[in-house]
Amino acid sequence: MKILLVEDDENIALPVVEDLSDRHYVVEIAHDGQEAFELLDVFEYDLILLDVMLPKIDGISLCQRLRSQGCQTPILMLTARDTVSDRVKGLDAGADDYLVKPFALQELSARIRALMRRGESSLPPVLSWGDLSLDPNTCEVFYQEKLVNLSPKEFRLLEFFLRHPHQVFSRMQILDHLWPLEQLPEETTVKAHISSLRQKIKAVGGVSDLIETVYGLGYRLKEQP
Q1: Is the pLDDT of residue 95 over 60?
Q2: How many domains does the chain contain in total?
Q3: CA distances, 97 to each of 7, 41, 48, 54, 78 (Å)
């Protein structure tokens, strides 16, 4: 899952990025409201963590602007203001949830999971495809009850395909979803990770082409017989 964190205070942003990265999220940082607006105009995110007090465009105004343009991405507002009127203002602007600073990273993670379970973003607790299962909460993958040991990036790659079954993704689309913009590698990196993921699934008895190549287009999950 790809998250945009809009926060100008590095003392808050860096621990959040580190913690969420350890939980297998891909996180990009925007340091002001204008930068966030420009990123959201080009890239897709699964969730926005939005500080209220921001340079250039404040969080409330940015949230209102995004909602007025039809943006449906879940928004979790982060703010040091804890009055009822402040919370109401944020929710009325279109935010889905509100977290007051300072907050525990564990609570932030729980709020994120709760948001992603709501409405159209409702996700099953365990993702399955045939005999393969992936648990986002424990970050474990099993094939016929055999544990598949994956690297964090391989885990995110497999989770991405399981969350978007039947869809074909190009290498560039995969890079956009799984790597932060400032760390974007070459497209050949995608091929290497998919090859490694295939080998690890095959090693525990799975099919070697669970993620199949659609020539000229990209990759997708192979349909189950």
Answers
A1: yes
A2: 2
A3: 16, 22, 11, 18, 9
